[in-house]
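User: Continuing from earlier, I have the next pair ready.

Assistant: Great, send them over.

User: Here they are, in order.

Assistant: Folding the first of the pair now:
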Amino acid sequence: MPASLSPDLLRAFVTVVECGGFSAAAERLHRGQSAVSLQIQRLEDRLGVKLLNRSPRHVTLTNDGEALLEQARRILSLHDELAARFDKREVTGAVRLGAPEDFATTHLPGVLARFAREYPHVTLEVTCDLTLKLIEQFNAGGLDLALVKREPGTGVDGLRIWREPLVWVGREHADALPDPLPLVVSPSPCVYRSRATSALDTAGRAWRVAYSCTSLAGAHAAVRAGLGFTVLPKDMVPADLSVLNDETLGLPDLHDTEMALIEAPQIPPAAQRLREAIVRDLEHGVA
């Protein structure tokens, strides 16, 4: 018979990976560190493989651990969805969620609509702002959950829930670009602005800020008016704007953008349910 895997053991494993260690995982799971360590040992014994390489400062995944991680997340997502469906206890309260405006207006509406139908007595308080300002508000205790942009593999801790390539965007396809390159960007600090200017500097290409605006709609309008060029995730490019051919035009590669979900310690049940919904719907491309 195949090994029977308890969701509790899988949850301990996923949490240790997401938190980067046993101490932080134990705090999130509201268990002792030794108890979490024992759960991981039991899971490894059941599977007959080593899942984690342990060191005094952090843990890393083995090859078997990497193979298990994605499947464990899928199992837990289905488990939590099923449990929520038949949980008759009424979930109430308010959830304070922060997200960048571009992500909030494209990928979040479907997630939040489904959540509102499942939990009609929960009040959603959504703040849209630049990533660094969201992090400041989160660190000050003003948010339960926040979706923030980060450089892949570095920067802000949290669970990666979205990744896609960044592209150069203009009003229309072009055979040549002005020099210096006029940019339509958000004010500093902005991850996309920093990524664009750093890439241009590395490539030795001159640029200037032609239009700076905190509003996503305002930035799109500026590009439509031909005031300059901007940087957007590929799936967030409006239908009436064009993705530029960076190879033909000599524009530097921008690589991928990454969105991470961070959560405050000891979030209320309503926020826990929203976190589960975000991971379920976004991590596997449902939204």
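And the other member of the pair:
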Amino acid sequence: MKRTITIMFAAAMLTMSSAYAVNFEDTKGHWAEQTINELVERGVVNGYTDTEFAPEDEVTRAQYLKMIMEATGVKPTPCRAGECLEATASDWYAPYLQKALDCALIPDSMIAGYKQNVEYVVDDTGKATSSKLVYSGAFNGDLPISREEMAVLTQYFYQYSRTVLTNEDIDTSEVKPFKDEDSISDWAITSVVMAAAEGFIEGSDDNSFNPKDATTRAEAATVIMRVISKQEEK
């Protein structure tokens, strides 16, 4: 069932700062029940209501961007007019998108009509004194995030959050190829394999990844919990 929610609610529905007692009627017996409950108790995610989490609802690109940034400790930055793709200061997710763009953590393939331009600041003589790279196109934050897009953002931000001292080579030799690996986009395949090696993602019972399927709230919560757990191990 498709849901219509306000922008304010969309911004907060998966990333609340205060925990409360778990009493979701629609997660009882769900495969992600324990993970969802733990994240709620930690104050990391929240439900639509006190009794409804809607684990099979879709997660948008903007919602997941906020979630993975908070999970990896990457702080948002104020939106700058003309430098945040189609987002404006009135969009709740703009500070997250601006930071991600500043750090080059949004893959080109997730930006519709992607272009990049170098803008120069010149002095009175016409000499360039500084320059910056400005991206244009559309992030389309309200679109559901696909599983391959979710895997890419997860791996990008996790690696970005590592330091020289904590970064490590990722051994992908033990990763069993997904049954539908050929359907994973070329730009996403490396991150998908790395995310699988890190234990962030996994396939279905028949080892299919279903890369183009929309990510559900339960799936997003599970990946975020795995990232947080990995961060706590370091």
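Worth noting for the second one:
The longest helix spans residues 217-233. The chain has a mean pLDDT of 87.
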